[in-house]
Amino acid sequence: MNDLSEKVIVIMGASSGIGEATTKLLAEKGAKLVIAARREDRLKAIKESLPEAELYIQTADVRDFA
């Protein structure tokens, strides 16, 4: 993957599993990230673990819009 410093990427479900791993990989590549999930505490922990990343957090629950 090339330099992603000019890209803004939104990741839903970023607090664990594939979403968390993707967040870390893309942060290493320099992408600007907006990460979202239900668990704000986990999002904050991820942000703290990536101090060099340009990363914004947003709590969101997309399970049911009805």
UniProtKB/TrEMBL annotation:
Origin: domain of life: Bacteria
Gene3D superfamilies found in the cross-reference section: NAD(P)-binding Rossmann-like Domain
InterPro entries documented for this protein: NAD(P)-bd_dom_sf, SDR_fam
Pfam families: adh_short
A single Gene Ontology CC term: membrane
Keywords: Oxidoreductase
Molecular-function GO term, any one: oxidoreductase activity
UniProt record similarity statement: Belongs to the short-chain dehydrogenases/reductases (SDR) family.
Protein name: Short chain dehydrogenase/reductase family oxidoreductase
